[in-house]
Amino acid sequence: MKRAIVVGGGISGLATAYLLGEKARSAGLELEVMLLEKEKRTGGKILSIKDNGFLCEWGPNGFLDNKPQTLELCRQAGADSQLLRSNDNARKRFIFSEGVLHRLPENGPSFLASKLISWPGKLRLAMEPLIPQYQGEIDETLAAFGRRRLGDEALRKLIAPMVSGIFAGDPETMSLKSCFPRIAELEAQYGGLIKAMIKLAKKKKQDIAEGKVVASAAGPGGVLTSFRGGIQDLTDILSARIGEAAVTLDEQVEKVAKGSTAPYRVISDRGELEADAVVLATPAYATAGMLQGLDAGMAALLNEIPYATMTVVCFGYRRERISRDLDGFGYLIPKQEGKNILGTLWDSSIFENRAPEGHVLLRSMMGGACFPEYINLPDEEVQKRVQADLKTIMGINEPPDFVKIFRHEKAIPQYTVGHAKRLAGLEEQAKAHPGLILTGNSYRGIGLNDCVAAAQRASDEAIEQLKNR
Ligand SMILES: Cc1cc2nc3c(=O)[nH]c(=O)nc-3n(C[C@H](O)[C@H](O)[C@H](O)COP(=O)(O)OP(=O)(O)OC[C@H]3O[C@@H](n4cnc5c(N)ncnc54)[C@H](O)[C@@H]3O)c2cc1C
Predict the structure, then answer these.
(1) Over the stretch 302-312, which tens digit does the pLDDT of each residue have?
(2) What is the ipTM of this complex?
(3) N- or C-end of the chain: fewer Cβ atoms within 10 A?
(4) Of all protein residues, whose CA lies closest to atom 48 belonging to ligand 1?
């Protein structure tokens, strides 16, 4: 029997191990799949903590249903009946600018009526179709792209908060084509974003008229989806499907070397195992450590991928303590506003059952690539700063009734300028190691959907290699 070892039990590793087992079965391939995880639990960045009736997400709080990957995996693993869609009002998102929470406009008329962007800023945005298409060779930053196509104000108030909301990133360093490849493609294909929107809307209308199936996700980003027990249900279900015997916890892989009876030897703090295929679903810096001896060139490229820090601050309040409505998803804050937090998610408005009866749960994010030093603040200082910001932004004068603070020293990989070149280098060098596959959020997308899509590709590649061995 052949053996495949998956290292790392976050969503990427779990999805890869589960899919590998399923694909091997349907291909009639006799395969032992093993997953090694260094912590005493699976889930990686996914962890749903229940305390005093509150459900606090340590990392992600869901995935968007406008891409099919995670939904499809849930269906395949028999987890779809337990899915929980976010409330409809979670479509309403806000930006805090110049002392006011502005609703993020969703269409042309609401954009014109919004006071978020000034009239000169709106005029500059309206000129977008006249801006020539990018002809440069260099990997453009998100900031350069935003300034060039949409103007400085849109960059500050729309693009930068979005980049901090998704990547906890700094638009001045992040690569457009690596972070948002679709946007780069739209400019290349249609000559501009407004032109692309008009053409795509026309095509959608035509498709509907011709009776073709068209994605019907509510809102431009789809519907945020989780589980009643929190997003950890997803990784718990996958672990259970893979099977207790195949998942080893508390085992830290130290090295991947050439094997003697099989192509690879996986060396951990517990011993050694030989494998026909190895999938490393670990963060880039951890993968670099494992590959140092086998391929120093790959390790060097992996070490070039930086990570942003993040502090997640959960505050629970009795509902009557908050005078404003919490009808929405929450808000993001442009850096120029000089606040401590990057934004706040109104978690108990997004999903039911995130707070006990008569209470609300707010989750604020601090740090990111723009404020790396915040990770070192002690709890009392974090709480003081978040309270001060919530007072100015939401008018909450009282201290919270419930507090939980989580720190991620290496929260999210940053796809900075040069990321695509690094990936091309890794791909080239990986050709020397057939059956050694890298996956996870360090490469082609950090969303749960991206991790599951990458797991599909990794499991396909592993099956192909195993069949040919
Ligand atoms: C605060 C926060 C909020 C987020 N919000 C969202 C959201 O709402 N929606 C969304 O789609 N995405 C969100 N993301 C991104 C998403 O959570 C991650 O990209 C995704 O969970 C990463 O999964 P992964 O399996 O690739 O990596 P990880 O979850 O980091 O898993 C890697 C695993 O490898 C293990 N490991 C490391 N080294 C070793 C070793 N030597 N041996 C064995 N095991 C090892 C680790 O312990 C870990 O379990 C968020 C991220 C953060 C930090």
Answers:
(1) 999 999 999 99
(2) 0.99
(3) N
(4) 44
